[in-house]
Amino acid sequence: MSTGRWLALWSACLVAFLVLSLVPLDGPSALVRQSAFTAIMLGALGWATGRWWTALFRRVTLRDAGLMVVFAVLGMITSGVAALVVRSLFAVSANPLSGGTRGGTGQTIVEWVGDAVQLLGEELMTLLPFLALLHILTGRAGLGRRPAIVWAALVTAVWFGALHLPTYDWNVAQSLIVIGAARLVLTLAYIRTKNLWVPVGAHILFDTTVLFLVPALT
């Protein structure tokens, strides 16, 4: 792919994020917003790559399922340590989504489906810029593959954390360090497997545990 198409993909990620941010969170529009968020990036990926867009989505094996659990746990440990450090130095803000759903069974199912669709989109929102930056650093800047991977992972972790600033009351330390640390683990899951379903699964397990199960048990 050309650099222009990679940059167009990155721009589509930003447009998708704006859609996610501007449509109201609650009510029946939430699922529409979450679906549009992910569909914009999938559509851009299809436009940029043609029939090769499915290369990101490999068949999930039993080993992949196990790695989802491994990276989810690793993400919890990494972000937990980062949270302890940040909490000792700065004030922190609670995630407004923590604590579970507020409706009946039907609404709960819709919310969980919407969250899964959104988390697929969040992985696209990070990994498409990661691949774009990797292309630019290796193809244009002449950087070696390993240092390019490190820089691309770090930059997109900051990108992902920065996009969470509104969620955490613009708390820079919490968004960039805690969320960024968890993001690095999820990006590593893709680097390790080259299968986008693995970080998606790990992300779903991570959020389910941290945002729903832990508050319910404490």
UniProtKB/TrEMBL annotation:
<keyword id="KW-0645">Protease</keyword>
<keyword id="KW-0482">Metalloprotease</keyword>
<dbReference type="GO" id="GO:0008237">
    <property type="term" value="F:metallopeptidase activity"/>
</dbReference>
<keyword id="KW-0472">Membrane</keyword>
<feature type="transmembrane region" description="Helical">
    <location>
        <begin position="65"/>
        <end position="90"/>
    </location>
</feature>
<keyword id="KW-1133">Transmembrane helix</keyword>
<keyword id="KW-0812">Transmembrane</keyword>
<dbReference type="InterPro" id="IPR003675">
    <property type="entry name" value="Rce1/LyrA-like_dom"/>
</dbReference>
<feature type="transmembrane region" description="Helical">
    <location>
        <begin position="172"/>
        <end position="191"/>
    </location>
</feature>
<protein>
    <submittedName>
        <fullName>CPBP family intramembrane metalloprotease</fullName>
    </submittedName>
</protein>
<keyword id="KW-0378">Hydrolase</keyword>
<feature type="transmembrane region" description="Helical">
    <location>
        <begin position="31"/>
        <end position="53"/>
    </location>
</feature>
<feature type="transmembrane region" description="Helical">
    <location>
        <begin position="196"/>
        <end position="217"/>
    </location>
</feature>
<feature type="domain" description="CAAX prenyl protease 2/Lysostaphin resistance protein A-like">
    <location>
        <begin position="121"/>
        <end position="208"/>
    </location>
</feature>
<feature type="transmembrane region" description="Helical">
    <location>
        <begin position="148"/>
        <end position="166"/>
    </location>
</feature>
<feature type="transmembrane region" description="Helical">
    <location>
        <begin position="124"/>
        <end position="143"/>
    </location>
</feature>
<dbReference type="Pfam" id="PF02517">
    <property type="entry name" value="Rce1-like"/>
</dbReference>
